[in-house]
Amino acid sequence: MGMWIVHIPAIEHQVGITHAVLGWLLLFLGGGAFVGMQVCGPLADRFGSRAIVLAGGALCSAMVVLPGLANSPWTLAAALLALGFGNGCLDVSMNTQAVQVERGYGRPVMSAFHAVFSVGGVIASLIGARTISWDWSPSATLAAVAVTGVLITFALVPGMLPPERSSPATNPSRTGAPTKRRTPSQVWALGILALLLMLCEGVANDWSVLHLKDVLDAPAATAALAYGGFATAMTVGRFLTDRAVGRFGRVFIVRYGAGLAALGLAAAALSPWVPLALLGWTLFGIGLSGCIPQFFTAAGNVDPESSGANVSRVAGLGYIGMLAGPAIIGPLTHLVPLNLAFFLPVAFCAAAAFSAGILRPAHRKSTAEEPARAEA
User: Fold this and answer.
1) CA triplet 6, 8, 13: central angle to 5 degrees?
2) Which CATH class is domain 2-158?
3) Where is the region Disordered (predicted)?
4) Do 165 and 283 form a contact (C-beta atoms < 8 A)?
5) pLDDT tens digits for 260-290?
6) Is 92:313 a contact under the CB 8 Å cutoff?
7) Distance, CA of 50 to CA of 236 (rounded, Å)
8) Of 368, 323, 357, which Cα lies nearest the Cα of 106?
9) CATH class of residue range 185-371
10) 315 within 8 A of 91, measured Cβ to Cβ
11) What is the pTM of this model?
């Protein structure tokens, strides 16, 4: 996905579209991802997440070449829809597999997986910069990425975990058809919290640099540090979160992480000084860094036989939140200054902090991955 992102300007020029048209076409990427998540979540429960990771990883890798071949807005739309679908399939299946790995591993590891995803983006930016400097075409680079991704997928998937147990949900042969299970209300609550916090993450992705440049009149190079500080804090924070979860529990991480994010963004919004604003965006990233992985883990453990479907609900709602950030903040800026519009995501972070208790298991159990302290 990072390799697609670094080639967006070249593909935009190749297809001959404006930024506005590209913005609309990116909705096909998000829509495809959402559909892929909803389709592959139940399939992961029926056939095991390992099988769907294999299919999703191969599909996502293969489809990344299509945007590089697009020569019109319609072909680019179709390419992004296919790439989004593959990405959605991989996203929900690998998170479902990660829930299973964490359950067997005996201590929290989900946040580290998400941190490595961020590292992948950094690697993509470095490789992309090099291939662009060599004047490789987007189609050639993305074709090489596609082949590499497929080979890596087939090499790694055999080492993943098989389904944990055979049941009517995962073995339809017992009843002749898969059992349709009702989504627990706790999963929907986790999904709403994921939507709120991933919307906040989307706000940082799209508006942090503009905030420093337009509100505080910072030079372009300095303004770029706002997103750099946020992204770095997100990555480092996720590497550190698992140890904190093991000691304090998931409720603690979300409650105080979302609270810290609210304070950081409020400080950035109100600051008249660039250094304080940069510190605020960095604290915003640290606070958010460990929250979303906890929602995925909690959803996957509500009902182990429906982990894939439940993770797909949370991931799907979270993805909607990520896409909704620009759509919500943009119109608000016609009513209030940009920095004051940030108090909507501040309120969302505060709401998540107060609602963190929803991560407690519905049936209280003492497990290795959820310390008793998390229930307090």
Assistant:
1) 135
2) mainly alpha
3) 163-182
4) no
5) 999 999 999 999 999 999 999 999 999 999 9
6) no
7) 28
8) 368
9) mainly alpha
10) yes
11) 0.81
